[in-house]
Amino acid sequence: MTFLLASGWTTLLYFGFFVRSKYRTVKPPYERFVLFAMAGMLSTIPAAYFNARVLNDTALNFFETPDIRMGVLGVFLAPGLGEEFWKMAAGLLVVSCLNRRSRPVQPAECVLGFAVVGMAFAVIENIWSYGDGGAAYLLLRGLIAVPLHTSMCMLHGVGVLLYWKRRRAWPLYVFYLTTALLHGLWDVASIYGSSVREIWLPLSVIAVYTLAISVWCAVPERQAQPQGLSA
C-alpha cells in the first residue's frame, strides 16, 4: 500500500482539486472516470513496447548512445511522439464510446477524463519503470512526472473539444504534436541538462502545474452545447 501511495499520491490531490473546483453544475457519473483510468493504464503497454523497441533495436538509445544527437532524436521519438500518441488515442477512444450513449461527454468532463488518463499512465509508469528507485524517488516523481503527464493529457482533451466543435481533424494533430514537443523538451533537459538541472526541475514543475490549472480554468463548467460533444 505504501508503495502504491508513493507512486501516485499526487493523483489524489490533482483529481480532488479538479473535481472540487468545477463540478458544481455538470457532475458526470464517476464510473466514467474508471474507464478513463483503465484506458490510461492500458495505454502504458503499447507505449512501453514502443519505447523498448527504440531503446533495444535502434541506435537511438538515449541512455547509452555516445551521440547526443541520436539520443535527443530517440527522446522525441519514444517518450515524446510515442507516449503522447497512445495516451491521446486511449482518451479519444473512451470519449468516442461514451458519446454513443444517451448522455454525451461534456467539455469539463472531457478534459478531466483525459487528465485521469495521464494520471493513470504516470502511476503505472512509476511502478513499472521506476519502482526500484525507492519510496523517496517515487514521491519525487509524484511531484514531477504526474503533473507532466496530466498536463499533456489535458491539452489532448482540449484538442478533442476543438475537434468536435469545428468538425476538423487539425486540432488533434496540433495538440498531439505540441504535447510531443513539450514532453520531448522536458526529457531532453532532464537527461542531458545536468548543468542546468537544479534550475530546470523547479521551474519546469511550476510550469506544468501552471499549465494544468490554466487549462482547467479555461474549460467551461457548463455544457457548451445542448448535445455535449456528440454530433
Give the topology, please:
Blueprint: H1 2-22, H2 31-57, H3 68-98, H4 107-130, H5 135-166, H6 170-192, H7 197-218
Helix pairs in contact: 1-4, 1-5, 2-3, 2-4, 3-4, 3-5, 3-6, 4-5, 5-6, 5-7
Number of helices: 7
Globally, the shape reads globular
Looking at how many chains there are and whether they match, the oligomeric state comes to single chain
Distance between the termini: 43 Å
In sequence order, what are the helices and strands, one letter per element?
HHHHHHH
The domain tally reads 1
Helical coverage, percent range:
over 70%
Structural class: mainly alpha
Please tally the β strands and state the result: 0
Low-confidence stretches: 224-228
Query: DSSP strand (E) fraction?
Result: under 5%
Main beta sheet? none
Question: Can you give the mean pLDDT?
Answer: 79
Radius of gyration using CA atoms only: 17 Å
Explain how this protein is built:
There is one protein chain. With 231 residues, the chain is mainly alpha-helical. It has one domain (2-21, 29-218). Helix content is 78%, strand content 0%. The protein has seven helices and no strands. It has helices at 2-22, 31-57, 68-98, 107-130, 135-166, 170-192, 197-218. The longest helix is centred in the middle third of the chain and has 32 residues, at 135-166. The chain is globular. The N and C termini lie far apart (43 Å). Residues 224-228 have low confidence and may be disordered.
